[in-house]
């Protein structure tokens, strides 16, 4: 089995063409990041604004969780059938049934983004905000210079969860003849080609892990609290000097 899977993945013919692995991979990447971008544009302003004023957050979280409660497959089927031509037509590099796939993935990406952004804003220490107000900062300045930097780690965690979840969920679009790597799996099942099925599942899993690693790396780079800690450590080490460092290490 492993030899057959390796042969399938290393065969150049399986990667080229309109129904090749490269095309399906591009479709899944486009759907993942397009739906994530739209979900960020919709969810972040609402969650951050409500978190700043401290009102309506529970309602916003419950509304966004509707996307988690409704099965993604049900949304795909309803939109594909209900929208007739729009639900099944091909949209450029996004492939067939692109519109219902994007809508379903956006609904699935909103809950972790909205929830983490709102909770991150509300968990900022109120004493810090009061100190900022006491220094003469206005509402927008408090939001931009205090609340947002401190809430950013939790916001980025929500984005990371959304990326991996959307990537994995995009695979089931193939069940309604949609785009993405799931087509490799469904075609393998239809043709009773087990190595092809395993290869499709392996590709989805491997790229999910790659996305996880990349987003975690970006999270560490963009986290202002982590950056401040690194700068403070370097500053302390430079102030201590090599002699003090040697004494400290020997002690």
Characterization of the model:
With 251 residues, the chain is mainly alpha-helical. It has one domain: MetI-like fold. The chain is 79% helix and 0% strand. The chain has twelve helices and no strands. Helix 2 (21-53) runs antiparallel to helix 9, helix 3 runs antiparallel to helix 7 and helix 7 packs across helix 9. The protein starts with a helix and ends with a helix. Mean pLDDT is 81; it is low at 245-251.
Q: What's the short story on this structure?
A:
The protein is an all-alpha fold and 251 residues long. Helices cover 79% and strands 0% of the residues.
Supply database-style keywords.
single chain; 251 residues; mainly alpha; MetI-like fold; 12 helices; elongated; disordered C terminus
Q: Quickly give the CATH architecture.
A: Orthogonal Bundle
Write the CATH homologous superfamily.
Answer: MetI-like
Number of helices: 12
How many structurally independent domains? 1
Main beta sheet, described?
Answer: none
Helix content: over 70%
Strand content: under 5%
Q: What structural category arises from helix and sheet content?
A: mainly alpha
Segments where pLDDT lies below 50 for 5+ residues?
Answer: 245-251
N- to C-terminal separation? Answer: 58 Å
The CATH class is identified as Mainly Alpha
CATH overall fold name:
MetI-like fold
């Amino acid at each position: 089995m492993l030899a057959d899977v390796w042969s399938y993945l290393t065969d150049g013919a399986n990667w080229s063409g309109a129904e090749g692995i490269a095309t399906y991979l591009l479709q899944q990447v486009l759907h993942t990041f397009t739906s994530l971008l739209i979900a960020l544009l919709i969810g972040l302003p609402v969650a951050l604004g409500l978190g700043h004023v401290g009102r309506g957050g529970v309602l916003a979280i419950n509304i966004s969780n509707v996307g988690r409660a409704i099965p993604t497959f049900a949304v795909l089927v309803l939109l594909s059938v209900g929208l007739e031509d729009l639900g099944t037509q091909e949209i450029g590099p996004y492939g067939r049934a692109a519109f219902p796939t994007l809508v379903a993935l956006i609904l699935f990406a909103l809950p972790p983004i909205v929830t983490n952004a709102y909770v991150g804003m509300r968990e900022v220490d109120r004493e810090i905000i009061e100190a900022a107000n006491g220094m003469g900062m206005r509402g927008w300045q408090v939001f931009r210079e205090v609340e947002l930097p401190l809430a950013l780690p939790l916001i980025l965690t929500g984005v990371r969860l959304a990326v991996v979840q959307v990537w994995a969920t995009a695979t089931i679009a193939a069940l309604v003849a949609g785009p993405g790597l799931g087509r490799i799996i469904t075609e393998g099942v239809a043709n009773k080609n087990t190595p092809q099925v395993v290869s499709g599942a392996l590709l989805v899993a491997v790229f999910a892990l790659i996305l996880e690693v990349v987003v975690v790396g970006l999270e560490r780079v963009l986290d202002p609290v982590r950056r401040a800690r690194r700068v403070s450590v370097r500053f302390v080490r430079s102030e201590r000097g090599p002699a003090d460092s040697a004494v400290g290490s020997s002690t």
